[in-house]
Design brief:
By secondary structure, the chain is of the alpha/beta class. The chain is 31% helix and 25% strand. It is built from 11 helices and 15 strands. The protein has helices spanning 41-49, 121-125, 128-140, 157-168, 180-188, 201-209, 226-232, 251-256, 267-271, 275-290, 308-317; strands at 2-6, 15-19, 29-39, 66-74, 86-90, 104-108, 112-114, 148-152, 172-177, 192-195, 214-219, 233-241, 259-262, 303-304, 324-327. Strands 3, 4, 5, 6, 7, 14 and 15 form a 7-stranded mixed sheet that branches. The radius of gyration is 20 Å and the shape is globular. The N and C termini lie close together (12 Å). Residues 10-326 form the Enoyl reductase (ER) domain.
Length: 328
């Protein structure tokens, strides 16, 4: 089969087209012909950092985690899927799991679900990693109907899904963005947009919560921005973050009695730990998408499999609006 291979890592590393052996299906897995895959920040981190990142695969490596496609073969012990089923999932591209930048993938059936019927293959491929992350963060933070929820980075990959899921679960949603296009997208998704460049945390907390703070803050920006999340949260509030690889003074969180939830959605793939939970989340996300409450935003630029280097560059440029998708 055709695949795009990385033979080395580093900022100047480039993908090379190669013919590799089509993988054989094995028990508990399905062989999927990939129609589309999407690029996530973690993919670019792996390409740039290589073995400095503990989850990077050995070279030559096939990267890519998210995909949508059609089942072509079913392994022993798999009862939920049949040949011809359209599926989506996040199932490779790290550690010893070959990725999605190829014509086929053998994926653990626990990491999949049937593709939402109302989404295209391109749209479905954009969802798994970011949607599972948003889902886990909001659920672990105990989201409830009627809560005031703040999503940092609501026009980003994870953020734009978190806004939609929070709305679906009945919250009153607010979200930060830094430019006209970003703020317009946030409003389009049904949240109240906050320009973090022109409004201080103190100002928007006063404006939207009467100074009491948000009961739940979902921070898809993380790092130093976590201090803003602590400042924006209400007493005994919940803060969920997807980016916490940093040293941080937790004193503000202490004096507010905050609960901090760190989401690292790659754990099931990396450690073969409760993988069926991801399949269950993807099934629920399909129901939510089919109800009309969740639709991924795709970047306007399209890329073929051979253009994966350009797709990585597009994501890294910061100019993409929505998910960057590759047509396999």
């Amino acid at each position: 089969m055709k695949a795009m291979i990385l033979n080395s890592y580093g900022e100047d590393a480039s993908f090379e087209a190669a013919e590799v052996e089509t993988p054989s299906v094995k028990p508990g897995h399905v062989l999927v012909k990939i129609a589309a895959s999407s690029v996530n920040t973690v993919d670019t981190m792996i390409r740039n950092m290589g073995k400095d990142l503990p989850l990077s695969p050995d070279t030559p490596a096939i990267l890519g985690m998210d995909f949508a496609g059609t089942v072509e073969a079913v392994g022993d012990d798999v009862t939920d899927y049949s040949v011809g089923d359209e599926v989506y999932g996040c199932a490779g591209g790290l550690a010893d799991l070959p990725g999605t930048l190829a014509e086929y993938i053998v994926a653990d059936a626990d990491l999949l679900a049937r593709k939402p019927k109302n989404l295209s293959m391109r749209e479905a491929s954009a969802l798994p990693l970011v949607a599972i992350t948003a889902y886990e963060g909001l659920q672990r933070a105990g989201i409830q109907p009627g809560q005031k929820v703040l999503v940092h980075g609501g026009s980003g990959g994870v953020g734009h899904v978190a806004v939609q899921l929070a709305k679906h679960w009945g919250a009153e949603v607010y979200s930060t963005g830094g430019g006209e296009k970003q703020l317009a997208l946030i409003e389009q998704l049904g949240a109240t947009a906050i320009n973090y460049k022109s409004e201080s945390v103190e100002d928007y907390v006063a404006k939207h919560t009467g100074g009491s703070g948000f009961e739940l803050v979902f921070d898809s920006v993380g790092g130093a921005n976590l201090t803003k999340s602590f400042e924006a949260a209400a007493f005994n509030g919940q803060v969920a973050t997807t980016v916490s690889m940093c040293e941080l003074d937790l004193t503000p969180a202490h004096f507010k009695g905050l609960s901090l939830h760190v989401v690292f959605m790659l754990i099931p793939m990396l450690h073969n730990f409760r993988r069926d939970a991801h399949g269950a989340i993807l099934k629920d996300l399909a129901v939510i998408a089919e109800s009309g409450a969740l639709k991924p935003v795709l970047d306007e630029q399209k890329f073929s499999l051979e253009q994966i280097g350009d797709a990585h560059a597009r994501l890294e440029s910061g100019k993409a609006m929505g998910k960057v998708v590759v047509d396999n």
